[in-house]
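QA checklist item 7 of 12: single-chain prediction sanity check.
[x] sequence parsed
[x] length recorded as 360
[x] structure emitted
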Amino acid sequence: MLKKLLLGIALIILCFTGAGVWVINLLQSSELTNLAATTPDKLAYLDAKVSSSRGKILAVVTSTGEMGESGKRTGYELTELSRAYYVFTANGFTVDIASPDGGQPPVVIDDDDMGEFDYAFLNDPVARSKVINSTAVASINPEEYAAVYFVGGKGAMWDFPDNEAMQNLVRHFHYKNKVIGAICHGPAALVNVKLDGGEYLLAGRRVSGFSNDEELFLIPEARTIFPFLLEDRLRARGAAVQTGPSYLEQVSRDGALLTGQNPWSVWALTESMIVQLGYQPVPRLKTADEYSVQILGTYEQHGYRNARAQLEFLAGRAGTPINHRLIAMHSLVAAMKMEFIKAFELVMIAAAARQVGGRI
């Protein structure tokens, strides 16, 4: 995402040369870390892992590696799998990984979004073996699983909607009142599922997924590349689509159906799945990105002053990490949308975060 957003700096520089340089500076890391070497044993979160087995959760990823005939590469989003994997694991569940074709699925790794959980996954021989040798969905016995989690990634728009085995899997979970979770483009697995009476599963259900605004901002030609836009199809199926601000946390719950809008919703969605499964989630220290998303959410709902107040409150708590780079990236999004007052205010918040609370 950062690579595209950096193009917006040109616009800022043309309008406000000094501001553009300032934003570039804010996007630089203020702390050098060796996250790439992170291994699962270095994750403090797993120290409190539930020792007893609570069952199994199936994570489903796409097998599609190209966006139609566009030549654009795609796959499942690593961050949407890796973070969920450790939430489920820490809470006592064994995670199996499946894909439409089985075998090694294509993956999207965005260096700008990577954190310790993502690198730990890449360095986890058990997790890596599961994803490299993913099971074909058609071979899955749904009776073995307490929940299913559909991982996002733009490739899901091609091979999730019409996969008959996947539709049968969803119907099984629905009629057994088991937990169904889906993140970002993952709800594409649900859009064509019909129930026994012929109605669509999503009719009248509260659902979130990657929004049109988010899709078209990143890929302006998405309507011609994708078979459909996810938000459009969710609405066409009668879903009560709940959208939050772009690139911020948004989770919808409708009974045992839980869906998240984008990658920034993974933590909240997966821990909500644990609650729906009947357990209190294992305590977890929030990441720097999560605190930054909280501040951005406060800005969207309550304005600049309240966001600054929240930042100062969080900064006053020893050890609270804040990713000022993420806030600066949102200022670039605002600038590219010609929302210059918003862009300026977010730059001010990012600068303050770097000064008083930034850890990244």
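[x] summary fact logged: Residues 340-357 form the longest helix (18 residues).
[ ] second reviewer sign-off
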